[in-house]
Design a protein that fits this description.
Oligomer: single chain
Strand content: under 5%
Helix content: 55-70%
Structural class: mainly alpha
Distance between the termini: 77 Å
Largest sheet: none
Order of helices and strands: HHHHHHHHH
């Protein structure tokens, strides 16, 4: 994933459009900054993943993992070798034992239930006392906590509401069921908007003026 092209304020084209909409609707501006920061974080992670295989650390971790798996298979075939390794090379045996014990603890740890795009839960170890792992807790922290709509009194405001609904699906503010119901409401609003007229007719305006005048005379 290449890094996104940013303007002088650090926004992509899509983020800038959302910014302008947010300014018009008077929403909390921090939502856009949070979206930008989360996008940058994901891009940095992707860049690190792409660079990782060519690093010395990757080579050493790969070697360690392969050696650990080989030791496990060896012990499965001949469990008595562990006692021999402990007597002959206690220091390296202790390293293997520590790795094995830590791996078993990690496997027993409570798992993150955050749903991935394919429907499966994350299953990474979750933070103690929390529902999700470190990464998904950070993602949840960047989500907006409130979804609001403008008054649906003209075609422009309904279009803004449609844009916000679409963005709500993207950033997770709305689930699909709520968005479907909201889309139906907006469709009805768009159908009715040209049929409505909240301005009083001329006769009604004259009657209101006469009532106001009578009230003023009574007060005098």
């Amino acid at each position: 994933m290449p890094k996104s092209k940013e303007n002088c304020e650090g926004f992509t084209e899509e983020e800038e459009r959302l910014w302008r909409t947010t300014v018009k609707t008077g929403e909390d501006m921090r939502r856009i900054f949070n979206m930008r920061d989360e996008r940058r974080r994901q891009e940095e992670q992707e860049e690190l993943k792409q660079q990782w295989p060519s690093t010395e650390a990757a080579r050493l971790f790969t070697q360690l993992g392969e050696t650990f798996k080989a030791c496990q298979k060896l012990l499965e075939r001949d469990p008595e070798i562990e006692e021999t390794a402990k007597l002959a090379d206690g220091e390296r045996h202790d390293v293997f034992t520590m790795l094995r014990d830590n791996l078993e603890k990690a496997n027993r740890a409570p798992r993150c239930d955050y749903p991935r795009s394919g429907g499966r839960p994350c299953r990474a170890p979750k933070v103690r006392g929390e529902k999700y792992c470190c990464m998904h807790l950070a993602m949840e922290a960047t989500r907006p906590t409130k979804f609001s709509l403008p008054a649906l009194d003209d075609a422009n405001s309904i279009q803004v509401a449609l844009n916000k609904t679409a963005q709500g699906l993207v950033d997770g503010t709305l689930d699909e069921k709520v968005a479907t119901k909201l889309a139906y409401v907006l469709q009805v609003a768009m159908t009715n908007v040209n049929k409505l007229d909240f301005e009083p007719e001329e006769g009604e305006e004259e009657m209101e003026e006469e009532v106001d005048q009578e009230s003023e005379e009574e007060m005098v």
